[in-house]
Amino acid sequence: MPYQFIAVDRENHITTITLTRPEVMNAINPEMHEELQQAFDEFAADNDQYIAVITGDGERAFCAGSDLKAIAGRDPEKRHAYPASGYAGLIERFDLDKPVIAAVNGIALGGGFEIALAADLIIAAETASFGLPEPRVGAIAIGGGIHRLARQIGQKKAMGLLLTADRVSAAEGEKLGFVNEVVPAGDLKAATRRWCDRILDCAPLAIRATKQAFYKGLEEESLEQAMAAQAGYPAFQTWRHAEDTVEGPRAFAEKRKPRWQGK
Length: 263
Known about the structure:
The protein is 41% helix and 16% strand. The chain has 263 residues and is α/β, with parallel strands linked by helices. Belongs to the enoyl-CoA hydratase/isomerase family.
């Protein structure tokens, strides 16, 4: 499908999805939601694509959230009608077991921060900043921001950000624990690629099984139940019977680099 508001590039098992509305700080309009849904659907279905990177065009913004001007004239019942996988086609995509990395190149506010929180890793430029300012305009962060912050940085720190609607820098985000690495703005692309290359060194089905076990395990009532249940998770079953599961030990024994096939 041709895209008007995003760009999609596929290279070396990596799908890069770029928000391309820098003139409005990459704010998301209704059409963009549908394009993102389609792009993530294609990534999820493509067995040759192992990692997705989402980023923003320009130097100012990763994503400033919803384009309020674009939705102001819509039917009130449809203003917040999102695609099947939620805001940006991502925040309710709970069945995606491939890694998603947010390369945050500027401000990530409101829905933009919620997109980043929905990713598995956040690599941020020094110039990036994060916040959920919804209460300042009489709204709340219902796109997962409230719940993901509580789970990712703990209750008191999350409450501090949520109740003040404060914006924090990339460095503070790293201290709070939701940012994995902060780099100079000019190094963001290279740093993100470095993370991708390290993941690609691993067996893709093992990575998917790991991600699925991580998130599903958090839903179990105890550590004991999580460890007992993991063998029944779908990605675990796929990994257990995969050709790559045999290739890893064989490559080690033969003192060579594994040749992963993703099957």
